[in-house]
Every structure is written in C-alpha cells, then in structure tokens.
Amino acid sequence: MARIRKTVCLSLTSACTLTGALLGFASPAHADEVAYLVNVTVRPGYNFANADNALSYGHQICSKIATGIAYRQLIADIKTDFNTPDDYQASYLVTQAAQELCPADIWQLRNSAAGYTG
Fold first, then answer.
1. Residue partners of 91: CB distance under 8 A and separation at least 6
2. Is the dihedral angle over the CA atoms 62, 64, 67, 71 positive or is it negative?
3. Phi and psi of 46, rounded to 5°?
4. C-alpha 117 chain-centroid distance
C-alpha cells in the first residue's frame, strides 16, 4: 500500500512539474492584425476605405482603452463616427480591437465597461 502511495505521489509531482514548466513557456497574448481585419471588414456596416484605415481605427480604439477612456464614451464615439444608433455594432468593433490588437488592455476595458447598460 505504501508503495502505491509513493508511486501516485511521484506521478502527481511529475505531472505538476511538467504543467508548471509548460505554463512557463506559454506565450503571452499578442496582437493579431489579420484576425482583426477579417472580423471588421467581413462584417457589414463599417465600410473602411482599406485595411490601413481599419487598422488605424482599431489602434485608435486601443489607445483610448489604454488611456482609460470610459467604455460608454468609446461606444458613443464609434456610434458617432459610423453614424449608427446600434450599440451592438459599436461594441463589436471595440471588442475586436481589444481582443486582436491590444489584448493586454482587455482588463482595462472590462473595468471600464462594468455596469454599462447601453
């Protein structure tokens, strides 16, 4: 019985060590401009003139998030820029920019969006 316990403990220790090592090599979140472009140019309603324009707009959103602009203001700015009353269209663009262009700032966006009801 003691031998079985020792084997199980060694197995668990090895598994934990391996998991810790693998997590240490996991890459941090990184920007994915191609995914952003696919997501915002395929979905109708934004009508960016070209990819550079779409990327520039997305990076502007990221800059606003990083500086602490309130989520409510981000949504209002996008609704004005695209002449739409659609909260979903605005929030989709914010979400895509944050997820694909500045994933390190998602925590800032989540804090800013807390309690937003549109």
1. 75
2. negative
3. -90, -40
4. 20
Residue 94 has which token pair? Answer: 């914010």
∠ CA 78-83-85, nearest 5°, is 80
Judge contact between 73 and 67, C-beta under 8 A. no
Q: For residue 4, give every residue at least 6 positions away whose Cβ sits within 8 Å of its Cβ, in sequence order, or none.
A: none
Domain range annotation of the chain: 33-113
Q: What is the pLDDT along the chain (118 residues), one digit of tens a residue?
A: 555 544 434 343 444 443 444 334 444 456 789 999 999 988 778 889 999 999 999 999 999 999 999 999 999 999 999 999 999 999 999 999 999 999 999 998 998 888 887 7
Question: Which stretches within the chain are classed as H helix?
Answer: 2-24, 33-42, 51-67, 71-81, 87-101, 106-113
66 closest CA partner among 93, 97, 102, 96: 102
**114, 41 Cβ separation under 8 angstroms:** no
